[in-house]
Amino acid sequence: MKRPTAAIASLVTLSIVGAACANDSGVRVQSAVPLVTEPAPSTSTPTLDTTPDTSTADTTNPSTIPPATVPPTTAADVTEPLVIEPELNASVPFADVFDVDPNRVPNEHDEFAAVAFTDVERWWTEVFPEVYGEPFEPLRGGVYVGSPTRTTPIPGCGEPETDYDELQLFVAFYCNIGDFMAYDEGTDPAVSLLTPLADAFGSSVLGVVLAHEYGHTIQERIGAFERPLATILTEQQADCFAGAWTGQAYRGESPLLRLGDTDVRAGLLAMLEVRDPVGTNQFTPGGHGSAFDRVGAFQVGFLEGPARCAELLDDPLPLMPNEFQQFSADEFFEGNAPYDCDALDPELRQQIFGDDCSSAPEFLAADLINFWQLTFQDELGETFEPFTVATTTDLSTVTCADARNLTPQVTVCPAERVVVYDEPEVVQLYDEFGDFTLGYVYGIAAAELVQLDLGSDLTGEARALLNDCYTGAWVRDITPDDNGATPRNQRDDDGDGVAESTVATSPGDLDEAIRMTILLGDIGVNVDQIGTAFEKIDAFRTGVLGGLTSCRAD
Question: Which of helix, strand or coil describes residue 513?
Answer without folding.
Answer: helix
